[in-house]
Design goal:
Largest sheet: 6 strands, mixed
Strand order of the largest sheet: 1-2-3-5-7-10
Radius of gyration: 19 Å
Strand content: 15-25%
Bound molecules: 4-(N,N-dimethylamino)cinnamoyl-COA
CATH architecture of the largest domain: Alpha-Beta Complex
Length: about 260
């Protein structure tokens, strides 16, 4: 997978690191940037050797939102015609575990991008906000729904109606991030988490992730249905046999991904 102007693709064995690369605009998510991100994610998703994907934005900003320059003159028809919504749907359809490594600003679409990921590792410098209200708009890539589910209705309402940021520590306490670490450690921490997940049997990771994500977006009854189906399916994998046999034989499992 080659680097593009806007996204740098790194690989460390079974973990891929995508770095958003538009530092002069604090990684503002222009259509070209989103297209490059989606292409890179889909290519890594299709690569069997990749078991976890980190999205990073560098020290100063994860992403300061969608590109205001590109949106300023938009009409509703422009939004429909250019299909910007479809970028977010493409990210949502990725099947591999996604880890957001957030340092600095995760604002607007940047916060929504982090929330499309499965885990969020934050630097102490991270700031999360949905500041769209200050521009006369509102979140449009899942912010009103995912933020409320992550941190609760009242705190989400305050963030979305005021547009004011919360710190990494506040985000951690509210349940929006998994870990907060010093700035020099945030990427290593994300890598450690990614490697740990990558060491687990990939089919079980995929189906467990699917059950969680599906349930998060639907009713308890539907979520339990998917859990039951996926749980049962896993008994058809070699990794289930290997994992249980290894436990009984008191040795480490050797997962094949089958
Ligand atoms: N867009 C374009 N350029 C941006 C930008 C953005 N979101 N954020 C920062 N930049 C640019 C600045 O214009 C500046 O460029 P130059 O002036 O140097 O050319 C450069 O990045 C550095 O920014 P600052 O000079 O402002 O840096 P500061 O450290 O002083 O401030 C800041 C950092 C993050 C507090 C500030 O830049 C800021 O407030 N940025 C805007 C944050 C924001 O409002 N974000 C929300 C954008 S709206 C959709 C789905 C989702 C969305 C849209 C559509 N569909 C499904 C259709 C999402 C919408 C949004 O995210």
């Amino acid at each position: 997978m080659p680097d593009t102007e806007y996204v740098i693709v790194g690989r460390e064995d079974t973990v891929a690191v995508l770095t958003l690369n538009r530092p002069e605009a604090l990684n503002a998510l222009s259509p070209a940037m989103l297209a490059a991100l989606c292409d890179a994610l889909e290519s890594l998703d299709a690569d069997e050797a990749v078991r976890a994907i980190i999205i990073d934005g560098g020290q100063r900003a994860f992403a300061a939102g969608a590109d205001i320059q590109a949106m300023a003159q938009s009409t509703p028809m422009d939004i429909v015609r250019t299909g910007t919504l479809s970028y977010w749907q493409r990210i949502r359809r990725v099947n591999k575990p996604l880890i957001a490594a957030v340092s600095g600003y995760a604002y607007g679409g940047g916060c929504e991008l982090a929330m499309l990921c499965d885990l969020i590792v934050a630097s102490e410098t991270a700031r999360f906000a949905q500041p769209e209200i200050k521009l006369g708009i509102m979140p449009g890539a899942g912010g009103t729904q995912r933020l409320a589910r992550a941190i609760g209705f009242y705190r989400a309402m305050e963030m979305i109606l005021t547009g004011e940021p919360i710190s990494a520590r506040q985000a951690y306490e509210a349940g929006l991030v998994n870990r907060v670490v010093p700035p020099e450690r945030y990427l290593d921490e994300a890598l450690e988490l990614a490697r740990l997940i990558a060491s687990r049997p990939p089919v079980a990771v995929r189906l467990a992730r699917e059950a969680l994500r599906y349930g998060y977006e639907s009713t308890l009854r539907d979520g339990l249905e998917i859990e039951r189906r996926n749980f049962t399916l896993l008994f058809d994998t070699q990794d289930q046999k290997e994992g249980m046999r290894a436990f009984l034989e008191k040795r480490s499992p050797d997962f094949s991904g089958r």
